[in-house]
Amino acid sequence: MITVQDIENVIAARGNAREHLMAILRDLENLSGRNVLDVSVLNTLAMKMDLPQSAISGFTSFYTMFSTEPRAKFIIRVCKSGPCHVMGARTIFDVIENHLGIRAGETTADGLFHLEECECLGLCSAAPAMMVNYDMHGNLSESNIKEILDSYSAREPAFKAEYGPGIEGRAVIINNSQQTRRLLENVGKVDPASIESYLQNGGYEAARKAFAEYSPEQVIGIVKDSGLRGRGGAGFPVGVKWSFVPKGEMQKYVICNADEGEPGTFKDRVLMEENPQQLIEGMLLCGYAIGATLGYIYVRGEYRRSIERLQSAIDQARAKGFLGKKIFGSNFDFDIFVKEGGGAYVCGEETSLINSMEGKRGYPRVRPPFPAAAGFMGMPSNVNNVETLSSIPMIVARGADWFKSVGTATCAGTKLYCLSGKVNQTGLVELPMGATLRQMIDTFGGGMKSGSSFKFAQVGGAAGGILGADLMDLPLDIDSTIKAGVTLGSGVVLVCDQETCAVDFLLNVLNFFEHESCGQCIPCKLGTSQLHYVAQKFAMREAEEKDIQLMIDTAKMMKLASLCALGQSPILPIETMIRNFREEFVKHCDPDYECPQCDASLQAYYL
Question: What residues does the NADH-ubiquinone oxidoreductase 51kDa subunit iron-sulphur binding domain cover (predicted)?
C-alpha cells in the first residue's frame, strides 16, 4: 500500500513541477506492485503538488498505460496492430486466453496476470509480439507462449526491461553487405553501455570540430547544404527548420521525438538502444547551432530498454563534460533529460508531445504559433526525431557533399527502412533514399515466405498508403511516393501476401485510428468511429457498395477539418486500398461471401 510518505518521497526525488507528473505517476505505479494508481493516491498527489484533482484524473485517463482499476502483478499486452495482425496476433490471443482462462480486459483469479490488447510495441520484425510489464517477447507461437507465461509464476515484478531472444537491436538489422551503412555503421562495433567505446569509434569528434571551427550559423549552413530532410515522416528540410528558431538569449530547447508509435516502425528503438551517444551528440550539435541550453528526449513509455540506455549514456556524457557547463572549454552550456510517454500514439505529433512533456493531456495545439516560436513552456523549441538527430554528427564530421553523395537530387542521404511481414527475412535495412519495394523484398527480405506470393505492401505505417504490384519499382523516397499518391512516412515496409484480406487489413487500420484518436476535435473523434463502423459492416458482410464511397467521403472531410495529422491520415490507406482492391470490398457486400480472416478478427476483437 502506498503511503503519504511514499508520495512525498517520489515528489522530492522527481521535483514538484507539473512537467514531472508522468515520471511521478510511473514511480507510484511501480510502488503499487499491482500496476495501479489508486484514486486516493491520485487525490493525495494532487494536494501535494498543488494541482486540481481534475488535472491529475484527466492526465491518467488519457494515457493507456495507466489505470485506476486494480490489474495484476503482470500485465500482458499483446500487440494487434498491422505487422502483428498480419503475422497471427489473433492466434496468440487464443492461446493466452485458453491457457490462462481469461479474455482481454480480465485478470486471473490469483491476481497474477491481466491481459490487454495494445498497439505497436516496436517489435515488428519479431511479430507477433507481446510485452509482459516491460519485458519484450517476439516471434510468438503456440509452442513457446505457454512456457514464457509459466516462467513468470515465480517472479517478482521488475521495473527493468528484459528482452526475449532475437529482439535486441543488433539482431533485427538485416545482415546483408549490399546495405549502405551510415547510421548503422557502428552498431555492433560500439558498446552501447560504454562512452569509451563510442569515443574509440570517432565519437564526439564532430562536436569538437564544430565548437573549434564553426559558428552556430555555419553549423546550420552545413545542415542546410547537406539536404537532410526530417526522417519522421513530414520530410521538412532540417537546416531550414533550425533557422526558424529565433536568435537571442532567451531559453530555448532541443526536443527529440522518440515517441515511435507508428505501427511497423522500430528504427529509432534500435538507434537509441545500440548507439545512444550518437543521438546525444546530434542533440548537442543542434543545441549549439540554435543556441539552446536544454534538450529533452521524449521516449514512448513502452521502450523501457531505450530509456535505461539513454539515461546511462546521458550520465556518462555528463561525467565526461560533454554535457553540462562550458562544454569543450567554451561558454556554451547544454544538458539533456529523458521524459517518458504513457501510451498515446497522438503524442508523436510534435505539439501533442510538448503538451505531454508539460504534464498535460497530449492534445495537439492549434498552429501557429509553431514550436520554433512557442514550444515547450512557451519558449522556442526545435523538434526532430531520433533518426534525424542521429544523422547530424556524420554530416558535421564528413561534410555536406559526403552526405549528398547517395540518395536522390531532392532526397539526400540514406534511409532506415523497417521491413516486416510475409518475407523470409525481416528487420532494419539502411539504403540510399530511393530504394524500391522490389529491392526490399528480393535482395534484403530474401523473397516472399514459402508458398506466398506478393499482394501488396503498406508503406509509411498505418497512416501510409498501399502499394500494389504495379508500384514495386517506385523509388521509396519522400517526393516520389507523394507523387504516386502514397507516402514514405517513417520508413515502414509491411509486406502482405495473397492470403491477406484487403477488408480485414483495412478494418485493422481503422480500428487503430479510432482507438488512438485523442477526441479533442470532432471531425476526428466522430470520423474515426464512423470509418471503423463502416469497415466492420464490410467484414460482417452487411455493407452496401455505396458504403465504399461513404468511407472515402468521410475520410476526405476529416483530412480537411481535423486539427492534426491523425485525423488527416485515414484517407490515404482507404483510397489506396480501394484503388487496388475495390472488387474485394464489393464481394464483401454479399452476405454469403466466405472470408475466414474477417470472421477470425470479428470473433477475436468484436464479438
Answer: 503-548
- For residue 12, which phi and psi values (nearest 5 degrees)? -65, -40
Domain with residue 115: its CATH number is 3.40.30.10
Please name the residues in contact with 370: beta carbons below 8 A apart, sequence gap of 6 or more: 244
Residue 128 lies in a domain: yes
Q: Report the distance separating Cα 271 and Cα 173, nearest Å.
A: 11
3-state helix, strand, coil in the chain (%, to 5): 45, 15, 40
Query: Whole-angstrom Cα distance, residue 222 to residue 415?
Result: 19
Q: Is residue 175 part of a domain?
A: no
Query: Which amino acid makes up residue 100?
Result: L
User: Do 267 and 331 share a domain, yes or no?
Assistant: yes
Name the 3-class secondary structure at 348: helix
Alpha-carbon dihedral sign for residues 45, 47, 51, 52: positive
Least Cα distance to 359 among 16, 5, 8 occurs for 16
Q: Is residue 259 part of a domain?
A: yes
pLDDT tens, residue by residue, 190-240: 999 999 999 999 999 999 999 999 999 999 999 999 999 999 888 999 999
Q: Tell me the pLDDT band of 166, cut-offs 50, 70 and 90.
A: confident
Contact 326/333 with Cβ under 8 angstroms?
Answer: yes
Are 275 and 333 part of one and the same domain? yes
Kindly report the CA angle at 16 between 14 and 21, in degrees rounded to 5?
70
Residues 384 and 423 in one domain: no
- Contacts of residue 305, Cβ cutoff 8 Å, sequence gap at least 6: 136, 161, 163, 269, 273
* Residue 331: exposure state from Cβ atoms within 10 A (0-12, 13-18, ≥19): exposed
On whether residue 174 sits in a domain, the answer given is no
Distance of CA 607 to the CA centre of its chain: 29
Domains identified in the chain, total number? 5
481: domain CATH number? 3.10.20.600
In terms of domains, do 254 and 330 share one?
yes
Peptide bond into 369 cis (omega under 30): yes
Helix axes 267-274, 276-290, angle to 10 degrees: 100
Helix (H) or strand (E) holding 382: strand 381-385
14 and 89 share one domain: no
Any bridge partners for residue 237, and if so which?
229
Residue 246 DSSP class: P
**333 neighbors 293 (Cβ within 8 angstroms):** yes
Same domain, 131 and 216: no
User: What pLDDT is stored for residue 607 in this prediction?
Assistant: 67
In 3D, which of 192, 306, 325 has the Cα closest to residue 260? 306
Statement to judge: residues 101 and 136 lie in one domain: yes
- The model's pLDDT over 77-91, given as tens digits with 9 standing for 90+, comes to 999 999 999 999 999
> Cell for 138?
517476439
User: Would you say 299 and 224 are in contact if contact means Cβ atoms under 8 Å apart?
Assistant: no
Instruction: Provide the residue range defining the domain that includes 124.
Output: 74-167
Domain end call among 167, 184, 212: 167
Give 101-111 pLDDT, tens digit per residue: 999 999 999 99
Model pTM above 0.70: yes
Record the cell numbers describing residue 412, joined without a space. Answer: 539526400
Measured CA to CA, the distance from residue 252 to residue 379 in angstroms comes to: 6
Grid cell of 115 as nine digits: 491481459
Last residue of a domain, one of 404, 436, 468: 404
Distance CA 552, CA 547 (A): 9
